């Protein structure tokens, strides 16, 4: 359990630290990879961002990368470099930074040593450089470069704190056991619920498949019925058209019958008139013949008289 620490707590913690309490770098870095140390033309690494460019000094954090600190870093390496914004004066610098990233300097074997600690006079340089920081004078640096061992009172306080932490740990362990049991019960309920839900889902899917089949059959029947209705409507329309044509034929037949009757009547009238004309012609012919015969008879009689 991590309690919130104030300024005094942090000072006490830092004062009581020894080298064995500090992990200076992740253990997976022991086998290591090459470290990006500098770019061509720069003593360190220039980094560009959205607001300009600033340098990064890996030599100040070399111990966190799993390598020993070899003496005092040069002043050239730790000189800060900042280019704010993208003004015309910074444009050439930023273009140069962009190009030098194509030629970077990586190191690995050159940085390694027999230990991962501090080699040389680094502590003295650090002490001089960090003068004026309030809490640093409380750290007593020994000749070996590590902090002194804490006093008995501090050790006793740490033991009491460790005992309180153990009690809290036991309480948490009991609470964790109870939570684990409740979790098991909830898991069983959840599994039962999941199985019931799965059964209901399968049943719903089965019903849905049945409904889909019924819908398909109903859709097919509906389409068939629509086709039958369409055929019936077409037949009805054709029947109505035929009925109209039949009515037209019947009307035409009646009209033709009437015209034929009139024609027959006219023909009979004409025949009667012709017969009358024939009769008149025959009677006229007969009369002419009779008159001719009478004329001939008169001539014969006249000739006879003349002869006498």
Could you describe the 3D structure shown?
The chain is mainly alpha-helical and 308 residues long. It has a domain of 142 residues. Helices cover 62% and strands 8% of the residues. The protein contains 5 helices and 7 strands; from the N terminus they run αββββαβαββαα. The strands form 3 sheets. It has a 3-stranded antiparallel sheet with strand order 2-3-5, with helices on one face. Strand 2 and strand 3 form a beta hairpin.
Give the topology.
Blueprint: H1 7-15, E1 35-39, E2 45-49, E3 52-56, E4 69-70, H2 75-78, E5 82-84, H3 88-100, E6 104-107, E7 118-119, H4 122-129, H5 152-307
Parallel strand pairs: 4-7
Antiparallel strand pairs: 1-6, 2-3, 3-5
